[in-house]
Design goal:
There is one protein chain. With 76 residues, this protein is α+β, with helices and mostly antiparallel strands. The chain has two helices and four strands, in the order ββαβαβ. Strands 1, 2, 3 and 4 form a four-stranded mixed β-sheet that branches. Helix 1 links the parallel strand 2 and strand 3 (42-44). The mean pLDDT is 94.
Length: 76
């Protein structure tokens, strides 16, 4: 799931949120090429329920990690 974040200064960033189960399903594909990936702005959460996603985003924000867990959003 792709999420757009709007900060108090008006700047926007985005990140991806997934679950361990969705990663397992992705990697179980027989045609996976390349066999791995690196996504620095990927948050792995127990569920995709709005309350759970909100909770992890708030926690990352409280720990000043939300900036490094997301990428700038450049709107056209």
């Amino acid at each position: 799931m792709e999420i757009t974040l709007t900060f108090t200064d008006g700047s926007k960033r985005w990140c991806l949120v997934t679950t361990p189960q969705k990663l397992v399903k992705h990697f179980s594909s027989d045609n996976l090429d390349p066999p791995g990936f690196n996504i620095q702005h990927l948050i792995i959460n127990k569920t995709l329920d709005i309350s759970d996603v909100d909770k992890i985003l708030k926690r990352l924000d409280e720990q000043d990690e939300l900036i490094i867990a997301s990428k700038p959003l450049f709107e056209s």
